[in-house]
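#struct-pred

JT: dropping the chains for the assembly here, can someone run the whole complex?
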Amino acid sequence: MRARVWWGLFLLVLAGWRGAVAQTPVAPELLERGEYVVYAAGCISCHAGEEGESEHLEGGRAFNTPFGTFHAPNITPHPEHGIGRWTEEQFRRALREGVAPDGRRYFPVFPYTAYTRIRDHDIRAMWAYLSSRPPVARPSLAHGGAWYLQLPLAMRLWRLLHFSPGPWQDDPDRSAQWNRGAYLAEALGHCGECHTPRGLMGNLRLDRKYVGTPDGPDGDSVPNITPHPEDGIGKWDQDDLAYFLESGMTPEGDFTGGIMSEVIDNGQRHLTAEDRRAIASYVLSLPPLADEEALGGGE
Amino acid sequence: MTRRIRPATAAVLAALLMIGPVAGTTADDSEDIIKYRQKAMSSQGAHVSAMSQIVRGKVSYTDHMKAHAVGVAGVAAHVKSMFPEGSDFGVTDAKMAVWENWAGFEKAADESREAADALVVAVDSGDEAAIGEAFKTLSQSCKGCHEDFKEEDD
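RK: done, full complex below.
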């Protein structure tokens, strides 16, 4: 009898303590930064509900690739259907290493080859923000990846060849603005996931960075955004590119549609003008590359 | 050998004559219509791009805003008629969705026309903040229609 009372007290204390932990207020600045990083990294474009209308990251959107169809999972803090039972460390590993809590290697449709460059403090801020959002009870959908991807060693082998984890390193010889832009474009904005052509294995051909590709996501063509004067955006100045990332307008007054429009609406538009200018300064500093055809058919 | 035209024939002829000019728009060559609307759209683009330089304060030609805004509003009123049925044949970036979802296309065109008219009103008011907002809304309306109805080009 007495033992039971003690147990009861113990549980009460424990419950009170856990409640206190759960309620520890997270610094509002951290949540704010987390939200900003989530926008800068374009998580919303992929993880928002199927219609793309939902403000919650409950997933469902399908991605058709030459390697099969993949679905963005639910990343709201729902304990069963989302990532509510994850620890911050598991979240960090998913982004930095592309590894699930159960050890599975993610398919690189989840652009962790870019996100691995995100710095720890930004991952921490995103985790705080995502954890603060309302949980949504929507089961994640199964993927329909090609059979060879199901082979236990397939993703490991691919990663060995095409994945080098680790946060972005600043180049001390460049300006602070350039470095900020490089981090925003490479680690967060993952411009190269669409604008860099891929090899046979779906790997990014980094020697052709940002040169565009006729078969981008969903089979759409993606333009050359290197500063090449004819094939790329060499005639754009820094303001033109920064304004494009805010409004979707090219210097000719044409308005981008489709997937780039989502990149802008779900991400770039929400950044500070300073950050958009930083991205522009970085992108326009890259080597100008001619389109593939101009090289006589490419590979 | 003069033949009198019977009233019924006259009615048919008259009806044909009345239909004639209306059907005439679609009788234009599809490729010519496409070229025409691309030029008209390009002029919209040139006006909007020029205005963006003024709105962003890169140039101080604020007194030019009216001319650009009126130009855009004028053409915006004609967007629907530049996409007649059958004008999908040729080198065009218009998606089939234009004709498959005509109601949606009309809505996007109407919204853009209203946004352009609102910009003219804002420019007349001279209120800089209102002009900035109205310009943004107009830009969003161009982007909104392209998102659904214009093919991504390279």
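JT: nice. Residues 168-299 of chain A form one domain. Chain A touches chain B through 24 residues (CB under 8 Å).
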